[in-house]
Amino acid sequence: MTVTAAASRHVVLTGATGQIASLMVTHLAPRHRLTLTSRTPRPTGQRSGVRHVTCDYGDVDGLVDAFRGADAVFVVTNDPTRPEHDRNILRAADRASVGHIVKLSAAAVRDAAAHDLITEWQRTNEDRIKSSGIPWTMIQPRSFMSHALAWASSIRGSGTTYALHPHSRNACIAPEDVAEVSARVLGDSRHHFQSYEVTGPQSLSAHEQSAVLAEVLGRPLTCRELSREEAHATYTRRYPPVMADALLASAERQRAGAKAFTTDTVGRLTGRPATTFAQWATGHKDRFE
């Protein structure tokens, strides 16, 4: 696909404090008028053409005000235990006459064997948007390379990484690539009613990622296998038990090879190769030191 410059648009990014939306600002701000939304107040006036609106997914009227006049809205939700959030966003988009919805979903929705809580929630979100009558585009990434940052503390402390099924492979993707792909399609009618599965260029295991990090950092690392019980305990320190169960189910699908497939989507939509894990790790080396 030929990459061309897009006309200036009014774009709304939800989840503005999250990693994808914040990375998208770099690609969009020079050419488009941006509205960033989040639940917490942020400084304004830092960048020309960018405004910040404080609202949350429980406030439909606030979302309508933020979305009004938008050529496109980038939608990020992260709590499958609060399905009303996605309903509220779509209701507000309809009331505000939004021209295009780009939804950050997940590659797992394509897997007929995936029925965990998180995947079913994303499928429901996609189906709801597709039946809304609003032009849509789905961005369906594999696991983010930035999940490796969960190892930063143990790498600094003991030179150790941890994983359930450390030799199972995932075609993980750099968040920066997800952000650029998402920025490319926002408000562009050429991408209406399309779903894009986005992956990195390689399928790597946690053991292989650890070897890459060891080379980048210039010191040995050990990748230790977690038991199912240890992994569940790790997940529940960050998430509700139902989400921990979903993550375990996801890990089992990865062990079965469901996440090893790679796509060329990043290259087709951006005109450059997808970022390798080694490139991503080198760019974030300071986070592990």
TrEMBL record:
Signal peptide: none annotated. InterPro entries: Ergot_Alk_Oxidoreductase (IPR051604), NAD(P)-bd_dom (IPR016040), NAD(P)-bd_dom_sf (IPR036291). Residues 15-188 form the NAD(P)-binding domain. PANTHER family: PRESTALK A DIFFERENTIATION PROTEIN A (PTHR43162:SF1), PTHR43162. This is Nucleotide-diphosphate-sugar epimerase. It comes from Streptomyces canarius.
